[in-house]
Amino acid sequence: MAKDRDDPAVEDPEFAFLDDSTKSSTNTAHTEEPISVADTELNTSVAEASVETSSAAAPKSSAVDTSIPWYLRQNPAARDAQKPIEIPDLPPNPPPLLKTILEYISITAGLDDLELLDLRHLDPPPALGPKLIMIIATARSEKHLHVAADGFARFLRREHGLKANAAGLLGRNELKIKLRRKAKRMRMLANVGGAVPEGNLDDGIRTGWICCTLSKIEAHPDDMHLPGDNVDEFVGFRSVNPGVNVVVQMFTEEKRVETDLETLWGGVLKTQRREGTVAEEKLKELDEDVEAQESAEVPLISRQEEETETPASPVRPVRLPPSMPGDVFPPAPGGDAARQIRRLHTVGLR
């Protein structure tokens, strides 16, 4: 049976390249079947699942995008968790300027690991001065150390009129001069044929420790006492100004571990506290002994008072025996005879 070329249901081999979608569209256009409720729910669930999978796959595809070369990709910068700025607690009766100094060292200068040592009550006082407060801080590098110390000294002189003696700090021109001299020495050694010294030599340029000593700052109104105030005719060295000495010790991390000032002064403070505790215990024992002696003397005194209050026994008068003519020492004449004798002697003189 030959196929009818005019029949639309018969496939034409000349149009085999056409997609089946044309046929399906034509077929659905002519024959539409009713859609059930179950088919609708199935289509909805499939659509939701496809949306979820596409949203989950979107970040993966964006994260791994091979079309952009590696040198043009923008990676999010990994930001390290910044440490909160920690300022040590103020000691009792602090100087008014101490909080400003701590805030500048920690926030403006950017020094880390601040530690405050209250050495105001040390007896004898340290060599840096009586009523001393010491601040210890760490810099990130030697350059940071010099910049922080230089800025701190200029800040105190500009804002508060204080002169800070920064031991170990090289001036801006002094560092250039020393570096130039060091390079000249190296060239001279190379010309002569000498060997360059190796190792960590102290050439006076590199430093990991700067000690900033402030002039005396105003003390708290409740902290105006001076060492030796309770001693009459004090002999020794002390200042009349009741101020507080402040010292800022700036280290690099390696130098701070090597020096370990915290252990040194912490041990001194512990020793003083221990000695103070022992002295207080001894004073307490002496007070208890004195109170015990006083309590024992009270009944003795009361007993003596009771004995004195009792009436004494009457004293019998002593009667002398009458004088006899044969006694060795005759009795003295009476007063009348003596008066008569004086009268007889004075009669002839008139």
UniProtKB/TrEMBL annotation:
<dbReference type="GO" id="GO:0140053">
    <property type="term" value="P:mitochondrial gene expression"/>
</dbReference>
<comment type="function">
    <text>Probable mitochondrial mRNA stabilization factor.</text>
</comment>
<keyword id="KW-0472">Membrane</keyword>
<feature type="compositionally biased region" description="Low complexity">
    <location>
        <begin position="44"/>
        <end position="58"/>
    </location>
</feature>
<feature type="compositionally biased region" description="Pro residues">
    <location>
        <begin position="319"/>
        <end position="333"/>
    </location>
</feature>
<dbReference type="InterPro" id="IPR040152">
    <property type="entry name" value="Atp25"/>
</dbReference>
<feature type="region of interest" description="Disordered">
    <location>
        <begin position="1"/>
        <end position="60"/>
    </location>
</feature>
<protein>
    <recommendedName>
        <fullName>ATPase synthesis protein 25</fullName>
    </recommendedName>
</protein>
<keyword id="KW-0496">Mitochondrion</keyword>
<feature type="region of interest" description="Disordered">
    <location>
        <begin position="288"/>
        <end position="338"/>
    </location>
</feature>
<comment type="similarity">
    <text>Belongs to the ATP25 family.</text>
</comment>
<keyword id="KW-0999">Mitochondrion inner membrane</keyword>
<keyword id="KW-0809">Transit peptide</keyword>
<comment type="function">
    <text>Mitochondrial mRNA stabilization factor.</text>
</comment>
<dbReference type="InterPro" id="IPR043519">
    <property type="entry name" value="NT_sf"/>
</dbReference>
<dbReference type="GO" id="GO:0005743">
    <property type="term" value="C:mitochondrial inner membrane"/>
</dbReference>
